[in-house]
Amino acid sequence: MEPVYRRVLLKLSGEIFAGAAGFGIDAGVVTSLAKQVSGVQALGVEIAVVVGGGNIFRGTQAAAMGMERARADYMGMLATVINALALADALRQVGADSRVQSAIWMQEVAEPFIRGRAIRHLEKGRIVIFGGGTGNPYFSTDTAASVRALEIGAEAILKGTHVDGVYDSDPRRNPDAKRFTDVEFLDVLNRGLKVMDSTAISLCMDNSLPIIVFDLTVDGNLRRVVLGEDVGTRVGMRRAS
Asked: Is the pLDDT of residue 239 over 80?
């Protein structure tokens, strides 16, 4: 089978990095992520990654406890760079070439985000990892994923999670929750479905950028998604009948 996408952006939550511990970085999990990402890149797919930082620090939670929101968000952005560096090192260990670009200037550990340079890295067969969110407080890494995907000309956002798609209610609390195979952007917004935040969804809707939500903890699922197999939930697009 041939990949159905030429260039994609993978969105990883910080929680993915923590594994079963729920906090910090699980080396085995990050190695598994690196193998999946490098395996997709070996298919000829240009892949960029946006990482969250919730396994280390979550700005919204700190703000709720009284910390200044902007400062808390900047701390969360720094946490995403830690995860980006961990993934880059795991990719190195499995023989894949990658570059970390940060929206916050920190030249000793990462390149600054430069759109043309990021695209050039992809064209040269490198995996680009975006850290630092958008570089602005009050914006989530979901929004950063949407913005970066549009900037690099990605054909889809692949959102790797712990669940196998988008449900009409929380499947952990409701055993009768229904999983969607396809769902429209407006349905996501109107029904408050847990896909990405409303800013990110609106950006994707306005630019017809599909999102595929799938369970990244199942080995091989990332490969199946880029090969067009029936995995997860597709947001903003309908399957051909």
From this structure: no
